[in-house]
Predict the 3D structure of the following.
Amino acid sequence: MTETTPTPTGVRDVVIVGGGPAAHRLADSLHARDEERTLRVTVVGEELHRPYDRVALSTRLADAATDLTLEPTAMWDEGHTRLVTGERVVAVDAAARTATTSGGMVLPWDELVLATGSSAPVPDLPGRDHARVYRTIDDVDALVAETRELAERHGRPAQVVVAGGGLLGLEAAGGLAKLGAHAAVVHSGGWLMSAQLDEGAGRALGRIIAGQGIGLHLGARPSAVLVEDDAVVGVELTTGRTVACDLIVFAIGISPRDELARDLGLELGPRGGVAIDTSCAASAAGIWAIGEVASFEGRCTGLVAPANAMAEVVADRLLGGAAEFTSVDDATKLKLSGVDVASFGDALARTEQALEIVYADPARGLYQKLVMTDDAKTLLGGIFVGDASPYASLRPLLGTELSAEPAAYLSASGMEAPAGDELPASALVCACNNVSAGTIRDAVNGVGHEEGCTELGALKTCTRAGTQCGSCVPLVKKLLESELTKSGQAISRALCEHFELSRQELFESVRVLELTSFDEIIGRLGTGRGCDVCKPVVGSILASQHGSYILDGGRGGLQDTNDRAMANMQKDGTYSVVPRIPAGEVTPEKLAVIAQVAMEFGLYTKITGGQRIDLFGARLDQLPDIWRILVDAGFESGQAYGKSLRNVKSCVGSTWCRYGVQDSVAMAIRLELRYRGLRSPHKLKFGVSGCARECAEARGKDVGVIATDQGWNLYVGGNGGFQPAHAQLLASDLDDETLIRYIDRYMMYYIRTADRLQRTARWMEDLEGGVDHVREVVVDDSLGLADELEVAMAKHVDTYEDEWAATLADPERLRRFRSFVNAPGTPDPSVARVPERGQFRPATAEERERGEAVLVAGTTIPVRGADA
């Protein structure tokens, strides 16, 4: 293969064919490195979008407004780096060194980089023209639109089959399920993600996916798409089974788009793609290939880390360097809400005499495995399903000797984890951007930089670590703090530039000094006028300690938008209303009131995961009228807008269930009424299960209570979200009063000591001693705080007042709820809706442009019958 040497004089033209992440990375790298501007770069992409993050496509399914554009973008506006969108290179003349686009542009080149990516294949089977794929933004947006249109047409959720049980297929199925579709996955392997996971892990993952309501058809392929009257009605499988569906989506891998390479006569890989050497050069002079179209050692890969590494190699080579691409990092992490899956290294233990250390709990969908050398010392790979928390810290240790026995590194083993191995400088911390531990340490210490990057944001900017998929950010933060500690620098715990105190220190200072207003607090303890960081924190602290109306006494200006409106703002500027329904128990009469409100004000209704009913689409000026009806019927604010207790989820317990051993509904109601309105560093969720079958999912909550024959087991520190965590057992077989005493202490200790916006799981992780320390404080009263914490909680319970009831009783407070200050009573004329499944949802920009939206200027929208 041929290597190109830079010409000493003149500016060379570099044409990058393709506008995906690999092309963006190469253009960005050249722009940053080529300080003398010896290269003139043109990127040609056939999509109309600027290069975007394909890794995060699943987030577009959840929210069509998500902007996936890759940063930086400033280079596109400078003369030496040009982006051409909506054009496809259709021909390349190697002799004349020109590339011709579909729009007739002829681009001269000295260096040609093929970054054409891949396509999503659809097999040649009957009805294939009716199949859809999951590959681009346009594919995703079309799937969202079609799924919604099918649901509206049929009057039921769309039935979708996704062919492919790999990363993309599962993300597509999960995203479509969250849109309301009934999704099913067809996968040729005997278990999901069979290319990355072994059978134990794949089957554990299958339990989790099935638990989300997604159907699984394993060991089968589609053999035909069944069509009637030009519409999909089902898919026939190779097993002979027929699955009914309205839509079939193929996500069965990638096919490298190597048409230009074939036309040029370039050497191809055994399965297609442009064959490249370690310099990423193709078989013709001046031509290179990167990303999914590049075949290295006979293999094309669809992962972002190797694509970025190839781009960096080509950038270095074009500027006279000698960088090499030597291996493919195929570590993977599934980006699907509620599903924690990761694998890295020799995950399938193909190394001779490899040793596998496995901890599995199939009933919980938990599987963790480390692959070691036969002496159990050197880490070769790993798989995590259900709890991937060890992944970030273990992956950089690939190929090194561990300092403790392997099982200690697995959170499922229950063993004490080692204090932390010192990562070698060469250890790869951020695979997406090829950033090593040494690079991060150098950046913190100012090596190669004018000054050290001593804050996480600055460190991410100057090293790129954690700027793509984000899974390495916790490890980057640990390295930062470790280096600062080594150098003798204090790790700042300051709340913000206006307060040198941490949130915990500020909380205690306000309590001891008995301060009651922001002006008092910043005058005594801070400087300046405050900011968007410290103001809500101070507002929360004052609410926690004094329990007074959150918008009085100048505290209104401290709150976030949602707290000021006492409702959650939605994407179109309207608000949602969530009345409290303790433990999900509600009378038919109260249900009728909610229905009345929804119909009278034209609100979209949705039962939430917290056993409540959410009413969407209320204007600011409508909130008092809505709440007046609800309050009169006995409802109060569910505080879905606040950093406070959201709900206490409950199963039916011994009241009705033949398996229940305690009255979980009564206990859940008691807890919700006790802790309602409790302001805290972050939102709080409780769960109460009436037996060990755990139908209320209590171990996924900040406070989980599970019934036993002897009383209640108390679990704490469970969280969902981006980094889910199981709650840990704090105490067993408690009677009612002891249970509540321990929860009082736990909650007040968390509120006093946690950082800003820190969930209970992360708070407990940061505490020295973790759950054992919490147990000593809460159960054993090791700090002598038990009485004080209980008194603080009793004060909250005694002073609780429903915020909406208090608002309705005060005309001055009601003045806040106007659409326009100068025109009270005038509704916002920009609110627009479109009908969907018998209700109305916010219109998209495209629907507004096409005139499909209804502008809502009045107070009522008809939502029933043919007129809707």
